[in-house]
Structure formats: structure tokens, C-alpha cells
Design a protein that fits this description.
The complex is a heterodimer. Chain A is α/β, with parallel strands linked by helices. Chain A has 14 helices and 8 strands. The chains are: A alpha/beta, B mainly alpha.
Chain lengths: 343, 110
């Protein structure tokens, strides 16, 4: 598996993805679903989280990746954008910094970002793929993250190797378990101040399981089989974009998956979508409502600032959210967000 | 009829209520109550459903409960074991009838 970009695949273009998703004949369009729920226009309610996507470089090439990240990607947040993000974090009084990628730890300023955000007293989240902890230059990363009380949200789709490796690549399950043991060893998942949450995306064209029921099963399984501890489990629905969109189309599951998402539309989940309380920043500083809109290059509504350099909280906190049919992924069933189920 | 089973018929299942709505509603209410979490979890109930689907060899149920099992958090290994349990009961049920054969042979034989 290589990135769509490296293969010169048509879906590497955001416009091609948007045409596919918006051109699909659905019985209900997302915008209409919102209207029926009394939620159109969908409006932000504040900025509780600044999520920065520091780049697309990753040591893995997962089959479902919505970023089309991989070892070949070179997009990386320049230091001027990093500085602007940290200024926004401070001036906007935003309590939480969520660092994502790619593998965010591969960004040359990752540790600098963590230290500066923590010095501002902000909560910091690292979205970790676990195997990055095994790379030679990153041996001391668990200690660094623990010393700065960084909250870790780590990807693990399944408690069995076959499913994990099918989604994330051969040998990733075993590597992920090694990574989890290293995090446990420095106190993550065991010390109440060192939070380690796992995140699971379904390994295929189906919706995630009930989050709390699955968490109980996983806690038992990972403890019994591997003596691994974690705090919470987040279930995240796969979005029909980028490499997961490629998988859906290749496997002949696209139409039925979209139908499944539409049929599972939940107005309660729609009211609780994460974009209402977060602001997403692309590697080049462009602002988006969420990481998914970022990958589809759906920028903020016209009246809002374009980039983090123009950050003005009063013009962003009540902005209208830009939506599309891909948003059904966040409103199906119990809802889905970067923090798992929403209801 | 070109084929007896068509996956497009499954989403049309509710049409069974067309000429007998009262019975359909009663069936639905009972069915939904059966699969709600109780002493057994929804995941466990879906695995039972998958096993029974194989025992009664219903292709609609097999598709529906394969999806349900995945969406309740079971993995293919657990689902395969559930199918083996169903197959073992079916096989055992045939074999245990061998006792009827033996009893009957005993009655007829010297």
C-alpha cells in the first residue's frame, strides 16, 4: 500500500473526492437531514479545541487513512504557522491543543509545540499511531510525553492481529502492543494523570460497535492476553473520503455504505458534532471546520478568516459550519468524533 | 422464478406487514425486545443470531447477523466459532438420532 498521491490516483485530488461524494444519489442529502432536525444552518458554539494537522508524513500507510498520509508525503507545518497556532491558542483562550498528522511526532518541532503549549497551561493531545514509538530516534518519546502530561489517543482498530494488520499493515499489531507496553511502563493508562485512550475504526464497511460495551471487552482482553492497560476506548466511524473511499469503491461497498450512513442518521448526534466546538488548522495554516473538511479542501464559510494568521476568535466562535454528504459519517448511530461516540 | 433468494428482498421485509399489520407489529416489538441488552449483551445476542441463522440456513439472516456481529464488536474469529457451535449442534442432532436407529434395530433383531 502506498499513498494515493504516490500512485497518481484520481482520488488524490480533493475535487475528485468531492465530486464522488456529492454526486451520489442519496435518498436524503446531509443539508436536508440537518434542516429536518432543525439544525440548518449548523453553527459553531465556541472553540474548545484547536486541532492542528502538522503534516502528512507517517511511518504507516493505513488502508482507511482519510489524510492519505504515508512515508512519501512531505507536507509539513512551517515554523511560522506553528508560531501562529500557539499565538491563537494563547490569545483565544482555547483550553485544548489536539496535535494530529500524519504521525505528528515526526514533525521536527513536535516537542517544541508540546512544551510551548504546556507552558501556556493548555491540555495537549497527541494522536499517536503507536509504532512511531519504535523508531530508533524516538526511544525516549514515552518519557517526554509523560513528563509533559500529554494525553495520548492511540490507534488500535482491533484486539486481534489479523484485523489490525489488514487495516494498518503487516506487523503493525505486534508493534502497537510493544508501543502500548512502553507507554504503560512510564505510567500511561495506570497513573491517573497520564491518560491513554485507544481509538478504533471499523476494519471494513460497517459501523462501529457500542463504545462502552466494546471498551469493557477490550479492557478484559488486553489485560488478560497482554497485561496492557488503557483509560477509555473511542469508536470512530470511517469517513467515505481519501483511502477509505478508494477501499469502498474498489470493494463494491460504496453505495451500501453510504446508504447505511444515511439510514443511521441520528439528529442527536448531529447536534453534538465536534466541528461545533473545534477549529482545524492545515499544515499550511489554512483554517477548516474539521480534519475531514481539511482533506476535502472545504475551507471555512466565506465570512470567516482564511488562515491562522488572521485568527479572530469572535469571527470564528459562531461561524456557520460547511457541510457535505461525508458528514453523515459523524452523525450515524451514536455519532462519531475525534473523541469517539458523541451520545 | 429465476432465483429463490435475492438480497434486495431483505430491505423489503417490512412489506410482510402489508396484509397483516397487527401481527407484523407484534412480531417487530417482540423481535426488538429479544435483541435488546438484558442478561446477555447485544454482542452475545448477535452471535447467537448468527449461529441460528446458519442452523436454519437463512441467507438473509446470515448477511444481516454477519453485519450485526461486526457492528456489535465481534471479530471474524469469534463469529467463526459461533458458526461451528451451530454446525456442531446440527451434526450432533443428526448423530443422536442414531439412538432411535439402534433402539429400532434392537427391537427387530434377535
Amino acid at each position: 500500500m502506498t499513498s494515493l498521491l504516490q500512485r497518481s490516483h484520481p482520488l488524490a485530488e480533493a475535487a475528485t473526492q468531492r465530486q464522488q461524494i456529492e454526486g451520489t444519489a442519496l435518498r436524503l442529502r446531509f443539508d436536508d437531514a440537518l434542516a429536518r432536525s432543525g439544525l440548518r444552518p449548523l453553527v459553531a458554539t465556541g472553540i474548545e479545541t484547536l486541532q492542528i494537522n502538522v503534516g502528512k508524513l507517517c511511518n504507516q500507510t493505513c488502508r482507511h487513512c482519510h489524510v492519505d498520509a504515508g512515508p512519501d508525503r512531505r507536507e509539513s507545518m512551517p515554523s511560522a504557522v506553528v508560531d501562529a497556532c500557539l499565538r491563537a491558542l494563547e490569545s483565544g483562550g482555547i483550553p485544548k491543543l489536539d496535535i494530529t498528522g500524519g504521525a505528528p511526532e515526526l514533525h521536527p518541532q513536535f516537542r517544541d509545540i508540546v512544551q510551548r503549549a504546556r507552558a501556556l497551561g493548555r491540555q495537549v493531545i497527541d494522536r499517536c499511531n503507536l509504532t512511531v514509538l519504535l523508531l530508533p530516534k524516538y526511544d525516549d518519546l514515552p518519557e517526554f510525553l509523560a513528563a509533559h502530561r500529554v494525553q495520548i489517543i492511540a490507534s488500535l482498530p482491533a484486539v486481534n492481529a489479523r484485523q489490525t494488520d489488514a487495516q494498518r499493515g503487516g506487523g503493525v499489531h505486534e508493534g502497537s502492543l510493544v508501543g502500548l507496553r512502553r507507554l504503560n511502563a512510564v505510567g500511561y493508562g495506570r497513573d491517573p494523570e497520564l491518560l491513554l485512550h485507544l481509538v478504533t475504526n471499523p476494519v471494513g464497511a460497517f459501523l462501529p460497535a457500542n463504545q462502552s460495551a466494546l471498551a469493557a471487552d477490550w479492557k478484559r482482553e488486553l489485560k488478560q492476553r497482554h497485561d496492557i492497560d488503557f483509560n477509555d476506548l473511542y469508536t470512530i466511524t470511517n469517513m467515505p473520503i481519501s483511502r477509505f473511499l478508494e477501499y469502498l469503491l474498489q470493494s463494491g461497498n460504496y453505495d451500501s455504505y453510504m446508504e447505511r450512513l444515511v439510514n443511521a442518521y441520528n439528529p442527536q448526534a448531529a447536534a453534538s458534532v465536534m466541528c461545533r466546538t473545534m477549529l482545524s488548522v492545515g499544515w499550511d495554516g489554512t483554517l477548516y471546520d474539521c480534519d475531514f473538511n481539511q482533506m476535502l479542501e472545504l475551507t471555512l464559510e466565506a465570512a470567516a478568516p482564511r488562515t491562522i494568521f488572521d485568527f479572530t476568535p469572535e469571527r470564528l466562535a459562531r461561524r456557520r459550519i460547511v457541510v457535505g454528504n461525508h458528514c453523515f459519517g459523524c452523525t450515524a448511530g451514536a455519532g462519531s468524533s475525534c473523541g469517539g461516540a458523541t451520545i | 422464478m429465476s432465483q429463490y433468494y435475492d438480497s434486495k428482498d431483505l430491505p423489503r421485509f417490512a412489506e410482510m406487514g402489508t396484509d397483516s399489520p397487527e401481527l407484523w407489529e407484534k412480531f417487530n416489538a417482540w423481535y426488538e425486545a429479544c435483541f435488546r441488552a438484558g442478561a446477555l449483551s447485544e454482542r452475545e445476542k448477535a452471535l447467537i443470531g448468527l449461529g441460528v441463522a446458519h442452523a436454519v440456513q437463512c441467507p438473509y439472516c446470515i448477511e444481516a447477523y454477519s453485519t450485526a456481529c461486526l457492528e456489535k464488536g465481534s471479530d471474524p474469529e469469534q463469529m467463526t466459532e459461533a458458526v461451528h457451535v451451530a454446525a456442531a449442534i446440527r451434526g450432533g442432532a443428526s448423530l443422536v438420532h442414531g439412538m432411535q436407529m439402534r433402539n429400532h434395530v434392537h427391537r427387530l433383531s434377535m
